[in-house]
UniProtKB/TrEMBL annotation:
Protein name as catalogued: Enoyl-CoA hydratase domain-containing protein 3, mitochondrial
Function statement: May play a role in fatty acid biosynthesis and insulin sensitivity.
Annotated family: Belongs to the enoyl-CoA hydratase/isomerase family.
SUPFAM superfamilies associated with the record: ClpP/crotonase
Gene Ontology biological process: fatty acid metabolic process
Species for this entry: Marinospirillum celere
Superkingdom in the source lineage: Bacteria
UniProt keyword terms in alphabetical order: Fatty acid metabolism, Lipid metabolism, Transit peptide
GO terms, molecular function: hydro-lyase activity
Amino acid sequence: MSISATDLISVTDLGEGVLRLELQDPSTRNSLSMAMLDLLAVKLEEVAANSQCKVVLLSAAGPVFCAGHNLKEVQGNLGDQAAQLALFNKCSQVMQQLVHLPQPVIASVQGVATAAGCQLVASCDLAVAEESARFATPGVNIGLFCSTPMVALTRNVSRKAAMEMLLTGEMISAARALEIGLINRVATEGQQDEVALELARLIASKSAKTLAIGKEAFYKQLEMPLAEAYDYTSEVMAENLTSLDAREGISAFVEKRKPQWKNA
């Protein structure tokens, strides 16, 4: 039975400021079809406007996190370059939405994350994977170099590690993904959601205002020359100090008490 477009992603409030977005199309290995990407874009817009959400946990139903684009959909549009471009542009938009989202996003990965699925992991701020999880950018094996996944991959791992994945198309283990910086933590089998949620709740215990300021500054300064980055982040810190939560946090530290965040 086919899944309706509106059922492709579930949204669950896990409490304590954590919201789960779960890909719900295991029959296609949670492929990033145009329908999936369209809905994910909408859900991310809703999350960005949700003042109660401080951290997003991105997971997937079934044995596979995400196998990338739906190749049957891609094959069906082989004669339509405009349709192909629309698909890759939509995917690129969603990956940038993840980066620009005010809330930190943690991927919880099981099974495999390949091609655009690996791109999805790399585009999240943090990632936790079960120890048997595997990752790959295998486009080279079918004559379609993973050029768009390469953008996120090369911004997260070293050049040589990225080139090896891109040129060989081979799977790498969760341990190797941890070693090269593609993921943050490896969980015991089947425990990736619990580990990711623990990490999410730790982050959600901070000021939402501070998290948003920090995430935005992190990505902006990465693309700047050293001197410009220091000038920019100095301005960010000075402005950050005018926030209610910075004042509360400093007062709480001096007074040796737990801060009471206003998220402002």
